[in-house]
Amino acid sequence: MTNRKILSVVLLAASALSHATIHPSDTLLWLRRTPAPGTATVTCNRTTSTARIAADELRRGLGADLTADIRIGAAKDLSSEQYRIDIRSGHCVIASRTDVGALYAAYDLLRQRQLRLPADTAWTSAPSYGLRMLNHWDNLDGTIERGYAGRSLWQWSDLPGKLSVRYEQYARANASIGINAVVLNNVNAAPEMLADTCLRKVAAIADVMRPYGIRVFLAINFSSPAAIGGLPTSDPLDAGVARWWRRKVDAIYALIPDFGGFLVKANSEGLPGPQDFGRTHADGANMLARALAPHKGVVVWRAFVYSPSDADRAKQACQEFLPLDGRFADNVVVQVKNGPVDFQPREPFSPLFGAMRHTAVAAELQITQEYTGFSNHICFLAPMWHEVLTADTHRPHDGCTVASAITAMAGVANVGDSPDWCGNTLAQANWYAFGRMAWDNALTPQQIAREWIALTFGLKGKDAEPIERMMLMSHEAVVDYMMPMGLHHLFAWGHHYGPEPWCDVPGARPDWMPSYYHKAAPDGIGFDRSSRGSNAVAQYADTLARLYDSPQLCPEKYLLWFHHMAWDAPTASGSTVWDALCAHYQAGVDSVRAMQKLWQAVSGKIEPDIHESIGRHLRTQLRDAIWWKDGCLQYFGTFSRRPLPAGVEEPMLELDEMRRFGLDIDNYTCPPRGFF
Ligand code: GCW
């Protein structure tokens, strides 16, 4: 049998094992391993619902060998969400200023107990950021934009009368990792979200979230005054428009006294915004901020903007937002995606971090795997986020990281109504990691992976090692088989799953075409953002601009992001650009095989149906990794006209065959039948 045929048999067998049952413990996420119920003695000096939840969690989860005393309000020296835990006397004392501080302490204590902390310990913990928020891209019709775990959690037609049990489970999971805000709906927002009937439904969800310390936000459509208010305009400087928003906001707070505020996507991808009326982002944001300020609400204004006209999309957010630095109201936070383009498998950090010095800035990360293989591929995202958070912006001086330049973290949720919440068990780790990093930005991916594996599978030390290694290598694997060396946006049109670097849709926006980004041609590959090209490098601090500007000094992982390189140009590793590119694609495929072996090594140590199900995901991932490698290398090979170097496997599929199914969204989960 040829290679292709052997793989074909394996993969067809794999796809025959479709849809196994979900393990019941999956629904409990990382909270599944609490010991015997009702055994611990816990006292608490408050009776609010939040305090009661904290005490009940400890009663259920602590075990009989420890008693606990929760003292809320005593610790005046602590900040509002901070807590102190002291178990040195063999009796546990939890001190906090607020009841939500005690709730976070309870979850932390349970986590530490499962991780087997030393018995004589005391520690204090406070969040790195005050706003730790999930953004749902959920629509009112129950669909989720870029969601890969079923339909929306929010059962709009049942609300406000009927509450799904999942709402409270969701609130609990979030609180257990410190998430304190959720935006319920898609940033591509329907104006109807603000209709009175909808707001009553939102209020019912907010009532469930409140005891868990979670404030509800809504994404709004900027033209709501005209769309649902009957006004002739939505111009933010129009007095009638400002009045309409004030009344709307007052009405929301009458229903939801702790409402968080608005998330706004404006003048981006066809959505309305202040620029439609000749106004700036600051004009728009500040008008909303004035309406929210009396209630202590905030406006989270997204910086994800790009227009079809500009020569380099990566530069546009800075061009639009930097001139407005310092002009946003105090209760406005500008939310910036981690990279300058769009949640690609790897991007350098957005130069807005560190540059917006007089504006509150949030980092927006994507937990849902729009660009990293959906919930089909195993890709632990903590290493990518860590890379961004620890990047040195050199602004205002060396050593100032992205983590220190931001005041909030937002994550685009990967949660849906599927029984395992996220599409597969391993994808739950990304939700967990986001919360943990937003609480403590000094945590490393390894620490988070260890915690999560222990909490989820009950495995530690040597037993946990294969899973830990698999998780920690998975992001780099995805980068290697999809878009190594700084390549980006090679995705198939529309669905963003498989490769389509050859995509050419007549009449489409150039910046929606992969060729805009990879610029592959007989003379080489990559986007020239150096000082000889679009000069996007100049948006970074001088130290970085100099580094990125030089093809010799630029880190290889960003080489083709910043440079158009000749195919034969040498790279830092000594090989040519073409050979290095081929080696990365092959390494991606090899890494997935290595991940399969690591996963095999824990068979028998975790629930069989979960093991089986992740095994299937990995087989799909291997198939897709080969699809990516073969598609990209063969296509780029039409320009490089160079052979595959030694060690790189021959392609399994002809380029023409791949071109045929590249657009076929229905086939993307098994592209294509009879492929191998
Ligand atoms: O990455 C792109 C997605 C869009 C999304 C947009 C955004 C919600 O493909 O689906 O729209 O980003 O972040 O606004």
List the helices and strands and how they pair.
Layout: H1 3-16, E1 42-44, H2 49-61, E2 67-72, E3 83-86, E4 91-96, H3 99-114, E5 122-125, E6 131-135, H4 165-176, E7 181-183, H5 196-209, E8 215-220, H6 224-227, H7 239-255, E9 261-264, H8 281-292, E10 298-302, H9 316-321, E11 332-337, E12 360-366, H10 382-389, H11 402-405, E13 408-412, H12 428-439, H13 445-457, H14 461-482, H15 514-518, H16 542-549, H17 559-562, H18 577-601, H19 608-640, H20 655-661
Parallel strand pairs: 1-2, 2-4, 6-7, 6-13, 7-8, 8-9, 9-10, 10-11, 11-12, 12-13
Antiparallel strand pairs: 3-4, 3-5
Helix pairs in contact: 2-3, 7-8, 12-13, 13-14, 14-18, 18-19
Bound molecules: 4-O-methyl-beta-D-glucopyranuronic acid.
Q: How would you characterize the overall build of this protein?
A:
By secondary structure, the chain is an alpha/beta fold. The protein folds into 3 domains: 26-125, Chitobiase, domain 2 (2-Layer Sandwich), CATH 3.30.379; 131-445, Glycosidases (TIM Barrel, Alpha-Beta Barrel); 454-507 and 574-676, Alpha-Beta Complex (Alpha-d-glucuronidase, C-terminal Domain). The chain is 37% helix and 9% strand. The protein contains 20 helices and 13 strands. The protein has helices at 3-16, 49-61, 99-114, 165-176, 196-209, 224-227, 239-255, 281-292, 316-321, 382-389, 402-405, 428-439, 445-457, 461-482, 514-518, 542-549, 559-562, 577-601, 608-640, 655-661, and strands at 42-44, 67-72, 83-86, 91-96, 122-125, 131-135, 181-183, 215-220, 261-264, 298-302, 332-337, 360-366, 408-412. The strands form 2 sheets. It has an 8-stranded parallel barrel. Strands 1-2-4-3-5 form a 5-stranded mixed sheet, with helices on one face. Helix 12 (428-439) crosses helix 13 (445-457). The chain is globular, with a radius of gyration of 25 Å. It starts with a helix and ends in a 15-residue tail after the last helix.
